[in-house]
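Practice problem: tRNA and rRNA cytosine-C5-methylase
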Amino acid sequence: MELPQLFVEKMKSLLGEEYSDYEACLQRPKQSGIRVNTSKISVEEFRKIAPFEIEPVPWTENGFFVEAKDQPAKHPFYHAGLYYIQEPSAMAPAAFLPVEPGDKVLDLCAAPGGKSTELGARLKGEGLLVSNDISITRTKALLKNLEMFGISNSVIASEEPKNLVPVCYEYFDKVLVDAPCSGEGMFRKGSNEIKNWAEYGIEPYVKIQREIILDAVKMLKPGGYLLYSTCTFSPEEDEQLIEYLLHQVPELSLVDMPEADGFDRGHPEWTVSGLQDVKKCIRLWPHKIKGEGHFLALLKKEGEPAAGAEGQKRDRAKISQEAEAFLSECRMDLDPNRIKEHKGRLILTPKDLPDLGRLRVLRHGLLLGEMKKRRFEPSQVLAMALSGDGYARTLDLSLSDERLMKYLKCETILADEKEDGMYLVTVQGYPLGWGKLSKGRMKNKYAPSWRWM
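Answer key — C-alpha cells:
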C-alpha cells in the first residue's frame, strides 16, 4: 500500500517511534465485526444462538469481532435484523453517547445507518430518533437498515443541517455528529480513500465540520449531550475542531469517557492553545486495537431544558375496515391518534413529532402498509417492528427448514396450517416478513428489494 508522502511525514510527526507499528498494521487484513440488535434479542440470548465464532469488542457491550470468511450477511439471522455488520471502531460513537429510552435523538450525518441502528435500538421504542444525511442516495441505504432493525420511532430526513435548525432549535436531548472527514483512519480499506486524501487533503473537511458542528449545537437542548466523531487522525479535524467549538460555544464542556484496552487520549500539544481538556477525548489507532482509526469527543451543554413543546396535532386518519381489522390483530401499540395517511399509505408517527414543514423527509415514522381496494397490504417494515408473536398467525421456520431459503428468495412455499389468511413468517421466533396462505400454498410477501441474492 503506497501512502502519500505528505501523509507519511505527518504521521511520523504524530506517532514518532510508533509509526513503524502503524505502517505494519496496514498490511494486516481489515477486522470484521457485528453489533447485536438489543431491541430484538439480548446479548446473552444471541451468544446462545450465534451461528459463528464471536469475540467481544472491548468498548461496547453488544459488539463482537467475527471472521470475514463466516459471511455474516449470508445468514438468515442477518435478514431477521438480529445484528448489524459494522467495522469495530465505528461502534464506539453510538456506544459512548448516553442515550436512554424516551430521549429525542438526532444522528446528523447518519448514512448508511450503523450508528443510527444502535441509537434506535437503545431507545427501545420510546422517544424519537431523527436520522439525517445530506445525500439522498445514501439515505436510501439508511432507511433500509433502520427498517431491517425494526426501529419504529424513527424519522429519516435528507437535508443540510442548517435547514433543520429552525424546526429543531434546542429540541434534542442527544446529538451524534459523525462528521464527514478526510478518512485517514480508513486507509486500510483501499485505494479510494487514499486517492481522495491526495486530491483534497483536509482543509475542505475542516470547513464543513465547523459548519455542521455549530448547527448541531443549536439543535441540542441545554443539559443535553453531543458526541462528535471522525475516522481521521488529523488534529485539525479532531482536537483543534473541539478547541474551536469550545471557543465559539462557551456553554459547552467536554465530558470524560471510559477507558478501554488500546485507547489513547486526545493530545493537548496538538491544539493551538495547549487545551488540557482534550485529554477527555478518545483516539483509536489501528495499530493499538483490532479495528480502524477513530476520534471521539463527548460534550455537554450547560443549562436547564425548557418545557417540552407538544408534538404536531393531527387529525385522525381515515382507516379502511380492512386496515383496521388487520391492525387489530397486531400485538403492538398502534395509537390511532398517531396514524397518518398519505395516498393510501398508513404511517405510525412517533410521539411529540415536530412539524417538519417542507423539509425533505423520506419517512415520518413506521410504515404500516397500504390501503388498496377491499384489502390492506401490510409492509415489510411492520413485520420487522413486531415481536415473534406480534401477530395473530405465525409460521415459524427453523434454520434447517428448506422453506426458509425459498421464502427469503421470494418463492412460494407450502404450509399445512389450518387457517387461511395473512401470516407473520419468522425464523426461530424472529420476524422476517409476511406470507398469505390459501389452501396450503403461501403467497410470498417478502419485499423483493430485500430478496436473498
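Discussion: Residues 203-218 form the longest helix (16 residues). Students who identified this feature from the C-alpha cells alone can consider the problem solved.
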